[in-house]
Amino acid sequence: MIQSMTGYAAATGDTPRGVLSIELRSVNARFLDLQFRVSDELRSLEPVLRELIAARVSRGKLDCRVFLKEAALAPGARIDAEALARLGALSAEVAKKLPQATPLRTADVLRWPGVIAESPLDEEETRRIASALCRKALEEFVASRGREGARLAAAVGERVAAMRARLEQAAPLVPQALAAYQAKLTERLREALGSADDERIRAELTVFATKVDVDEELTRLRAHLDEVDRTLKKGDAVGKRLDFLAQELNREANTLASKAASHELADCALELKLLIEQMREQVQNIE
Length: 287
Prior knowledge:
3 domains; Ribosomal Protein S5, domain 2; 63% helix; two-stranded antiparallel sheet; alpha+beta
């Protein structure tokens, strides 16, 4: 199955401290580039999450965001008497200097940083929940990349079919172009060489025919297109292979354009180059 390098997925789950969320999003990259955005208290989760992700994803710049939305009053939470005393003292001092200031409400006090002393995270339980959430997110993430990969494979297949059609159009043009150009060249050679014999002209024509013969390029182009089809059917992580084939196709198309003996063949080579570039744009996003 062809996989795109673009994907997104998220999963959330309850923990004793609140709701834990994991987001995965990726774009194309040459290799696997894992970036984590994790708060310090959740940093211990990174190694296990990295291992889970690397087992399912082989290429792409992947950002993994892990965050905990803490409950307003988590089980086990209690009021920190010292913090509450400090807040009370500060509030009293403010009231003396600013009598018109509104007194703190209970809700304000409870939201004040440090007033609610929460129980520390249970690392083992948090790691278990995070691993389960990561697996769940990875399933959707891989599925989304697979759906996008199928669309990319279809787009590449369309370009391959269009290139085959251009090659079929080009094949019968070759002998016609050679015959027409040879006739034209023969006339020019006779004018330039004057009384030169036919043997000299035939030798010049042979050299010319060797230089403009494009049968080898057409054969290689067909072979590369066959390999693209086989690679698409094979699936898995084939992006680098397809990118290499696109480079080879472009090389042969350039040679075809440089050796084209007619405007029709040159136009065909130009259309091939355009299709190859369109194919390469799609291939750049395949894992």
